[in-house]
Amino acid sequence: MAWTTPPRLDPERSRRRLQLLAELAGSRTVRQRERPQRARRERLRELIATRRRIAG
Description:
Layout: H1 11-55
């Protein structure tokens, strides 16, 4: 069985797909920027919990 080329997407569907991919890339950038803050918060919570267990 020979491979055939996939059918071309209609322009509207292609535009929506590109828009979705751009939005996903934008959210990925935001998440990567927030990661250091999230890591810092998690580390601080761990330290507080450890301190409470020790003092407890």
